[in-house]
Design brief:
Structural class: mainly alpha
Largest sheet: 4 strands, mixed
Distance between the termini: 31 Å
Number of strands: 4
Radius of gyration: 26 Å
Number of domains: 2
Oligomer: single chain
Helix content: 55-70%
Order of helices and strands: HHHHHHHHHHHHHHHEHHEHHEEHH
Strand order of the largest sheet: 1-2-4-3
Number of helices: 21
Strand content: under 5%
Length: about 475
């Protein structure tokens, strides 16, 4: 199946195609244990990519300042709750992050090399562009990197030449230096475009070029977000790092203004950070993973700010002060995750096992946002339905799907009724009550297949859980129905 054309997706596709070869190593359609191992492998891959991101942050800090800045930045980054939560999930951002940080490393390397020769910096600028373009092809959120990077490179290219590029007073060589920098900037932009253009061309050859543009760009521009309070949580759990980051930013700006031979690597990092935070303001309500982009840069500047404070003390007591500072900065934030580690997924695994035991690999399953139909053919083009997707559903698409259900053109064997499916409205509810039966308020089987399957109730953890739709039909005339209509 082709993403965007055969099923709904609004993220760029490189991460999914990177994981796909591993998917075929597991029998995820007939064995729930094999399916579970595949999901564990996905998290294991995320762990490897997270380690790579930390290593690259160390390298960026080492190239920008010195090794201690990179080490501290990596440690601070690893301790942030948002980073720990999101980088261990199976999501595109986990692959995009090391590509983005690697792109920054290439650009910093290119800035250093181009001071001596344009040719020496050419490959690094091209590599930086290809890395950022690849990150964008994992998730469009990385587009917010571009404005800040371009501003930093534009200042670098137009602010004149650094020492060693021309003789003092040689206006001709100054113009050549600026032209060479603009050329390097153009090479970077070309590198960014190559992954996007080649990916679009590949989908166009499969008849999905238009859908690729519509779903990844046009649809996301008008996406309706719900309030998640993630910004408040981010500030609450990471405010010491943010405060140190502001100190590090002030130091970087002061040094840029005062030094005779100005360094543009810090300015590039700063403009990139500013662009990412500006992008967060554009989004009505950013989810937690949106903060993965600026976090590495926040920690780099925070590490510089922390070292600045420590170095104000006597040399003899500096190591002690640094260790004492790292305890609240790098250890205490992890306690914010203690609730996450106490949560178990036994009920969810039991429901997934129930779907495996009562449906076959080719049986169509209708699921909302609980993920119980993840390894079964889905009934609807919009295969995941959470409040944001439901709010965006085009009415003609929903009506066409309901027509197909009522005519029998689409006939799910199992419907896992959660709140998001209930939000499809009264017409869908009436169809389900006429054609499906359930004894737990969660799993609804097509009439005539219930006894044949020999089912006796739902799995452990389903009954009595109102968040999963238990007792839905008993309360359909009450507050829930009013809530559905209000959607």
């Amino acid at each position: 199946m082709i993403p965007y054309k055969d099923f709904f997706e609004h993220h760029t596709p490189w991460y999914y195609y990177a994981v796909r070869p591993f998917f075929h190593l597991f029998d995820v359609t007939t064995s729930v244990e094999s399916a579970r191992r595949f999901l564990l492998l996905g998290r294991g891959l995320s762990l490897v990519l997270t380690a790579l991101s930390i290593f690259l942050v160390l390298q960026v800090g080492r190239l920008w300042e010195y090794r201690k800045v990179g080490l501290l930045a990596g440690l601070l980054l690893l301790s942030q709750p948002v980073f720990l939560e999101k980088t261990l999930e199976v999501r595109p951002d986990v692959l995009a992050l090391p590509l983005f940080i690697g792109s920054l490393w290439m650009l910093l390397r290119g800035l250093a090399r181009s001071a001596r020769s344009t040719r020496k910096g050419l490959s690094y600028f091209l590599g930086g562009g290809l890395g950022l373009g690849a990150a964008i092809m994992c998730t469009q959120k990385m587009l917010f990197v571009l404005p800040g990077v371009l501003v930093g490179l534009a200042v670098w290219s137009l602010a004149g030449v650094t020492a060693g590029e021309s003789r003092p007073g040689s206006h001709r060589e100054t113009r050549v230096g600026a032209g060479s920098r603009l050329l390097l900037m153009l090479v970077f932009l070309i590198g960014c475009c190559v992954p996007a253009a080649s990916t679009w061309a590949a989908f166009s050859l499969q008849g999905a070029g238009r859908e690729f543009i519509t779903n990844n760009l046009l649809l996301n521009l008008k996406w309706k977000h719900i309030e998640t309070h993630q910004l408040h949580r981010f500030i609450e759990t990471s405010w010491p790092i943010l405060a140190l980051c502001l100190l590090g930013v002030a130091m970087a700006l002061l040094r840029f203004v005062r030094l005779r031979e100005r360094r543009y690597d810090g300015l590039l990092l700063l403009s990139t950070l500013a662009g990412l935070f500006a992008g967060l303001l554009v989004i009505p309500s950013a989810q937690g993973q949106y903060y993965l982009g600026p976090l590495p840069l926040v920690c780099l500047f925070a590490a510089q700010g922390l070292l600045f404070l420590v170095e104000r003390a006597r040399r003899r007591v500096r190591p002690v002060l640094l260790v004492l500072a790292l305890f609240p900065l790098a250890i205490l934030p992890a306690f914010a995750l203690r609730e996450s580690f106490s949560l178990r997924n036994d009920g969810q695994l039991a429901r997934l096992r129930f779907v495996f035991e009562n449906t076959g690999p080719k049986d169509v399953v209708m699921d909302g946002w609980q993920g119980m139909g993840v390894f079964r053919p889905h009934a609807f083009h919009y295969f995941f339905l959470h409040p944001e997707t439901v709010a965006m559903l085009p009415r003609p698409h929903l009506d066409a799907y309901l027509d197909a259900l009522e005519s029998g053109a689409i006939r799910p064997k199992l419907i896992a009724m959660d709140w998001n499916l209930a939000a499809l409205g009264p017409r869908f509810q009436k169809f389900v009550t006429r054609n499906y039966v359930s004894n737990d308020g969660l799993f609804y089987f097509l009439r005539g297949t219930w006894q044949a399957q020999g089912t006796r109730g739902g799995p452990a953890g389903a009954e009595g859980d109102p968040s999963l739709g238990s007792g839905f039909w008993q309360h359909r005339q009450g507050g829930l129905l009013r809530a559905v209509r209000g959607f």
